[in-house]
Design a protein that fits this description.
Number of strands: 8
Structural class: alpha/beta
Distance between the termini: 42 Å
Order of helices and strands: EHEHEEEHEHHEHHHE
Helix content: 40-55%
Strand order of the largest sheet: 3-6-7-8
Radius of gyration: 18 Å
């Protein structure tokens, strides 16, 4: 029953999903302040943000190929961490003007981290740093926005059937799945959505990062 605004850089994929579910959409970069200001300007009654834009790269800090490219490290942090914070602050600014419900709530922010924030693998320095930053900012922002009636939580997914993981070889995917305790498979978008719904409806969940991972603990490599 929600009215949705979808934002992504993938114009074709974005339009396809938006048409399928009857959502509004905007092609844009979540780390770009002006683009995102314009994207949400006319989206009235904004009371929930789900931050799930993200990119991942694999690169060692030093190797026979040379040092980790600094621009690549910055790019991952810009999209994953700065992009999430950019959307959070812009949407929270709009949410604070909402009429509070019977609990005094005006809005909910749900960020997406990763289990790599806790047990990142070799080559995931940039990705783990970006996701660790999201975990680290969750509680202080939740404490601050409490006075505005806005809750802030984070989901830390494990191994999910997304474009990011499906781009890896079958061998790599199976080796990752083998480290999952139960169930031994990839997570689904529906299972992520179910947790989003639970966070939205359970007002007592605030300032928390929840692992959604089948008890997976990533091996060093």
């Amino acid at each position: 029953g929600a009215e949705l605004l979808l934002i992504d850089l993938n114009a074709d994929g974005l339009k396809s999903v938006a048409d399928e579910i009857g959502a509004q959409y905007c092609v844009g970069d979540v780390s770009n302040e002006e683009e995102m200001k314009n994207a949400i300007t006319d989206f009235n009654g904004l009371n929930c943000l789900v931050n799930c834009a993200g990119i991942a790269v694999g690169a060692k800090v030093v190797s026979s190929r040379g040092m980790h490219d600094l621009n690549l490290f910055e790019k991952v942090l810009k999209v994953n961490l700065i992009g999430s914070f950019n959307m959070l602050r812009l949407c929270a600014d709009k949410m604070q003007s909402n009429e509070p419900d019977h609990e005094g709530e005006k809005g909910v922010v749900i960020n997406t981290a990763s289990v790599a924030a806790y047990d990142g693998q070799i080559g995931q320095a940039a990705y783990s740093a970006s996701k660790g930053g999201i975990v680290g900012m969750t509680l202080p922002i939740a404490r601050e926005l409490a006075s505005n009636g806005i809750r802030v939580n984070t989901i830390a997914p494990g191994l999910f059937a997304t474009a990011m993981l499906s781009g890896m070889s079958e061998e790599v995917q199976q080796s990752l799945i083998a480290t999952t305790v139960f169930p031994k498979r990839l997570g689904t978008p529906l299972e992520y959505a179910m947790l989003v719904e639970s966070i939205l409806t359970n007002v007592l969940l605030n300032g928390e990062t929840i692992r959604l991972d089948g008890s997976v603990r990533l091996a060093p490599r």
